[in-house]
Amino acid sequence: MLRTRPLVCLRPLFRTYATAANPHALVFLEHRDGAIDSASLSALSAAQKLGGEITGLIVGSSDEVKQLIPIAQKLQGLTALLHSSSPQYATPLPELVSPLLEKILSEGTPFTHVVSAHSSSAKSILPRVAARLDVPAVSDITSVEHDTSSNSTTFTRPIYAGNAIATVRAPSSVHLKFFTVRSTAFKAAPAGSSEVEAKAIDPVQVADPPTEHIKTELTKSDRPELGAASRVVSGGRALKNAETFNSTLEPLADILGAAIGASRAAVDAGYADNSLQVGQTGKVVAPELYMALGISGAIQHLAGMKDSKLIVAVNKDPDAPIFQIADVGLVADLYEVVPELVKKLNSQ
């Protein structure tokens, strides 16, 4: 929950940067509960596609940063690590973190690219900094290639709810390129054996910040996190109400060790929490197994799960759009299929 007051916007200064022969990426590493987010590890993998040096950046409170430095130093692909700690960075609000990034990326910076996961936080921070520096930002990319000879970078990104792929090229005249990464398009970078050098950066304190963090409310669950789960069981509006949604999906998810997801219709009807929504306006997932139960397959839902390796759909409507992308489709009543499936799995 955020409390805000009017913010006076200043016209950004135009800056110039020295052209680098080889790419050097700055990767914004997000974290939670003492661990680096898997989406940020995917962003690190994307940065490796540029073929140059990679510096990681961690911001947070003093205790958080101290805990994360040894972990980040061993990440495969990093060549250096920057870190900055401040009580203001305990919750990375755009108004508080942006000045630090602007300082790091000031005139004479060695960096040619700024990379992050396509997270709620980074989607607010990176475009803000890019605007201040008067450079473009490309969001939600699924591939990246850098041509060292021309110093241009080419990206692909889904548009029109994933029904088309746009190819975007940032030419050599754009010396600093910002982009966010769709985590499902890249594998998470693993830990390596060697440690990179870590360097502290003085924080940029914001006096009288315009935004204040009040509290964070998280839905706690013993199941895998939806965005990173290898198996997902999702339910739609056909599950009638919240009680039926939980009683039907939870036994199956427990047996499979799966995360639970929901269609937008199910979330809007109050069957499931908003954090479980899969789709264009929710989370984008690409698990090994995605089970769509009672989901018709609206275009915005398909945009969030159609890259799953194996899609299993159960729906009474034989003309449901979900069957067009399903690898395994069953035209049946989910209230008969799911209990029977649970029974069969329990007997294994």
UniProtKB/TrEMBL annotation:
It is found in: Mitochondrion matrix. Its cofactor is FAD. GO terms for cellular component: mitochondrial matrix. Binds 1 FAD per dimer. Transmembrane segments: none annotated. GO terms for molecular function: electron transfer activity; flavin adenine dinucleotide binding. It holds the Pfam family ETF. FAD binds at residues 237, 263-264, 277-281, 294-301, 315. Keywords: Electron transport, FAD, Flavoprotein, Mitochondrion, Transit peptide, Transport. One of its GO terms (biological process) is fatty acid beta-oxidation using acyl-CoA dehydrogenase. Residues 25-209 form the Electron transfer flavoprotein alpha/beta-subunit N-terminal domain. Heterodimer of an alpha and a beta subunit. Belongs to the ETF alpha-subunit/FixB family. The electron transfer flavoprotein serves as a specific electron acceptor for several dehydrogenases, including five acyl-CoA dehydrogenases, glutaryl-CoA and sarcosine dehydrogenase. It transfers the electrons to the main mitochondrial respiratory chain via ETF-ubiquinone oxidoreductase (ETF dehydrogenase). This is Probable electron transfer flavoprotein subunit alpha. It comes from Hermanssonia centrifuga.
